Predict the 3D structure of the following.
Amino acid sequence: MATRIALVADPDGPGGRFQRLADDGSPAGPPERTADLAASVAAAEARERPRWVWASTDALYPRLLPLRAARCHDLALVEPLLLAHEGHYGHPRSLGAAWARLHGLAVPEDRRESALPDDQPTLFQPDRLQLPAGTDPLRAVVEVHADQQRRIAAAEHPDRMRLLAAAESAGALAAAEMAYEGLPWRADVHDELLTGLLGPRPPAGVQPQLLAEVAAELQQAFGGRPFNPDSHVQVLRAFAEQGFSLPSTRSWVLQQVDHPAAALMLRYKELSRIHTAHGWAWQESWARGGRFRPEYVVGGVVSGRWASRGGGALQIPRMLRGAVVADPGWSLVVADAAQLEPRVLAALSGDAGLARAAAQGDLYEALAALAFGGDRARAKLGMLGAMYGQTSGEVGPLLAVLRRRFPTAMAYVEAAARTGEEGGVVRSHLGRTCPPPSAGWQDLAGAGAAGAGAEDDGGSDGDRAVRAARARGRFTRNFVIQASAADWALALLAALRRRLAEIGPDATGGRPHLVFFQHDEVVVHVPTQYADAAAAAVAEAGEEARHLVFGATPVRMPLEAHVVECYADAK
DNA sequence: ACAGACCGCGCC
DNA sequence: AAAGGGCGCGGTCTGT
């Protein structure tokens, strides 16, 4: 067990205070003061690699970077994990809120975002502990931490909750480090890609040439009247005038329309999307100085997946991945966990047949061989339907096959769905708990159970109650898988950043570091001489995460690492 | 003028 | 019989 050290930064100035803690969180020394927080942290890292206990990694760690902390306990991230596990939901995350709850005081409102000026990323805002005036922040950190340690020990599976808290906290370290490093982004390559698609860069606010041309052709195809292709209403009306009554302007709908305007519309949407979401304006805002610097929001999704704020970090179009190029003398290691979610289901449920398929490199191929006459496409469609709760169309019969051949796995997801339909909560393997149903959902469920029959165009209350129940069932069905996959991914990140820290440095001080993380995929930027070592570290970290999270399971969760110069070359 | 709902699409 | 999970973002549209 690592030493624990509680740490608070002075609100202004480079100093701070700290206190050594025993593993249960009780003080193991007196409160101490340092005039140079970073120097004290660096010294302690070199000496003993403690687990830093602090209010919020977001608030404190950026001021320490590029200094690396090996591990931490993030009180603001652990608190909601524990609260949700204990049956509470929707509480503020600040240290102040946790401290107030602990002392039976009124919980302060969470005003993390609202009061901030918008010219600076939230990440670099000073700490907002939101403690009552006069409260000693170090004492609050120590007390809230001790309380959290007690609650972790009281969890349904204390070891798993301890791992979850550590992994979530390690994720926060990795997120701050990735924001600091940035993803290598070649503006010149991005420009070339945009110019090829849209024409030369126009002045701000002017439609690119090729986009304007497609818009003009569209207008011609619809008879020449002024027409805004960005307006769904106008697009639907234009198609109606040509004799096509469309349910929506979705691309799969347009693909089936036999009219010259349909192809133009699809082309327009594609170009417009690139221009508005990842065009020159995006580059100006998010990818300056050769780096794309997104803000990750650790735990931003209830399932434990990360979200991002600004820049669309988790939606970089494949079309633009050519702009992600390693620095000269450096490489990228790109690795993703293939078919992670069905593998996670196999591990969670302990289904022997599915585990047999998941012991293979291509799970769907193996599944097809076991149950679908070798038809990989149908095996995949059925598996996805089982995990998402889809049953329409051709999926129904596939589910019947899965139920017959993999009864334990199917019973697992169906039990999760039933729990959700009945208003219950489910947990990930490590104990992350899904939110309870909303008040509106419960009202609807009550009305549905009462059999009241007020009709409107949404059907009777009973119909709506059934639809809402099914929707929640699909959510909890998917939650157990998605959230357990997120458990694994966090453990992977934690293991990987620890292993990467042991590689290098090269003659210029270069070391590998994580630069991108997207649910089940990581990108490492690494001096080329260490690329193979980093690729090996990725594979080993995947194995470590599998053992940590799922214990002894025959299910493989392979991470295939590609050493490339350019992200686009990884697949 | 602004806020929030809705749409449709990018990613997993 | 039918029933598709999770996000962020920028666009229009609607209500105030």
